[in-house]
Amino acid sequence: MEIIHFSAECYPVAKVGGLGDVVGALPKYQNKLGHVAKVVIPAYQTKFFQQHEFEVVYDGWVKLDFTNYQVRIFRELTNKLGFDLYLVHIAGLLDREKVYGYHDDVSRFLAFQIAALDWMAQWEHLPDVVHCHDHHTGLIPFMMGNCFNYTKLNQVPTVLTIHNAQYQGQFGWDKLYYLPPYDLWNSSKLDWGGAINPLAAAIKCAWRVTTVSPSYLDEISHVANGLENLLAQERGKSAGILNGIDNEVWNPQKDPMLFKNFNSRTVESGKKANKEELCRVFNLDPNKPLFTFIGRLVDEKGADLLPEICYQALAQSQGEINILMLGSGDPGVEDRLNEITQHHPGHYNAYIGYNESLSHQIYAGADFLLMPSRVEPCGLNQMYALRYGTIPIVRRIGGLKDTVIDIGDGGFGICHDQTSIWDVVHAIGRAYALYLNQKKMKEIRKFIMALDHSWDSAAQQYIDLYQLK
Q: Which of 27, 116, 167, 255 is buried most, with the most CB atoms less than 10 Å from its CB?
């Protein structure tokens, strides 16, 4: 089976969040099952694009807003990622460093989708499945099924995976002429809430729809930024498949980014060594429990509450805990997190920014990971933490609910029900009490490192889904 994944991100080529991790791993595991999975993303000006060898497989043009843009599609030559990688280069639109955040993102991702389909329509053969990820590729199912230029592709099954339904990519009908020609009677497939909504169009037009955890599929039937009724209507073709993690990238026994490697047998000495080095770098006490947060500093993650959570937790513990923050996002939250260092030196520190190596080191050295999310479609951080023997403290929502069981229920994590300061501080108190019981901590660490959250099962579930045409 030949599977073509279309996405805005793919680790390690271009990553902003969990979408990049998923698209960088799922195709590799599908190939291991004996299939041919390929990935198509924009050719951003990243280090990966600049430092690897490529060949040109397509030369063409795409017209957008009365402007013709040159298109080149490159194939990475070494198969380094475990799958064929194709980068769509559009001079003037996609040849920038950042993935998102430009005033013309609508034009950028429209051009990407059109150029990719123009290329695929010229193939001598047809793929078995086209798998689209989030709204950045959401118009592909519509265009394949309705645009005159792609009649050849209209019987190729399409799958949409919703990584986060809050972001939908909607834009005004004044840009309708950006799309390749189609029968205007089909315009209702594009519409939701009076705008062209790529995510809604994909939900309507894709042959199958998946979410990145079973619980998230249930949740977005009730809270999905205006798409609740549509998702309820299309529930019959929808499935929740829990994301996995790439056990080759996230392997504490071989991870080259760690200060000291370890496995479940050597977890105590391994985590101790990594914790001591972290605490040396960030001026913390290695003899106290280390709590951490890793991620985007946005409201979805509960980051707006983190400064007050830190203040209250540090005050209540009377100096008996350490907290280390890693992330970037809301400038106001960044400033407040930095300020805490001045008030609690030796007990608290923060690294504001994105640092892949440091994230691995923190997973390896921390005792507890905070995830007080308001929205968490799947969550990968809690799975990384478990793999590295770090106990997650999570809100019961989305994929967090599917992957973490509270110690009070015979499980291995600390769970709370609300994204509130009181709930999280109380959970930190429960975690501190657990830390004082070192015998129990050691038992949990060994247990959670043995949990299997690899992509093996999920990759097969997707293969089974593709075959349900």
A: 27
| pLDDT score recorded for residue 469 | 60
Rounded Cα–Cα distance for residues 345 and 384 (Å): 28
The CATH H-level (homologous superfamily) assignment of domain 2-245+456-466 is: Glycogen Phosphorylase B; (3.40.50.2000)
267-449: what fold? Rossmann fold (3.40.50)
> Which helix (DSSP H) or strand (DSSP E) does residue 391 occupy?
strand 391-395
In whole angstroms, give the CA distance from residue 462 to residue 467.
Answer: 9
Residue 299 CB neighbours (<10 A): 16
Phi-psi region of 34 (alpha: psi -120 to 50; beta: other; left: phi over 0): left
Which residues pair with residue 131 across a beta bridge?
5, 159
Higher-confidence residue of 222 and 424: namely 424
Q: How do residues 76-88 score in pLDDT, each as one tens digit?
A: 999 999 999 999 9
In the chain, CATH 3.40.50.2000 sits at 2-245+456-466, 267-449
What phi and psi values does residue 108 have, to the nearest 5 degrees? Answer: -60, -50
At 397, the amino acid letter reads I
Question: Per residue in 191-219, pLDDT tens?
Answer: 999 999 999 999 999 999 999 999 999 99
